[in-house]
Amino acid sequence: MSYRVIGAPSSILSNAASRVNYQLNAEIRSKDKKMMPTLKDNFKKLILIGLPIFLTIYLTAPFLFGQIFGESWAEAGWYAQVLVPWLFVMFLTSPLAPILTVLKLQDVTLKYDVVLLIARVLAILAPIIIFDNIEMSVISFSIIGFMFNSWLLFFIFKTVKKYDEVYG
Predict the structure, then answer these.
(1) Other CB atoms within 10 A of residue 104 CB
(2) Total number of domains in the chain
(3) Which of 6, 26, 113, 145 is buried most deeply by CB count within 10 Å?
């Protein structure tokens, strides 16, 4: 429920921005222009859109879930709080990631996705098996998502910088 309340609306925005960014970056690449100015501009816009929303959710989720869905849902608000850092970084990364396809780096994204899948499965199962604790699983899952998306964001910026040095 927590993921649906937070993740669904951000996915809609993120997917729309993704399609626009893909077309824009493909056009920039076909003209051998620099990609970094567009990347930075899009990144700033995503921060300006997402930060107030995700910060508000982080600060108020248990209260809001309890008020909107009933007191028994307040715990879902805590789960939402735990997921917010990961979802925010994913909100920033997802619209920018298609640039890797434009740069023909699908092999990197495939490897990234395989390692991410393995890490997510371990993040969910290890705390349950070792500690019998679902809350630790949610925290681990969010931390893994945050770390992987942060790395991907860094990789995107690093790759575009290298591209611009060669072609821009």
Answers:
(1) 9
(2) 1
(3) 6
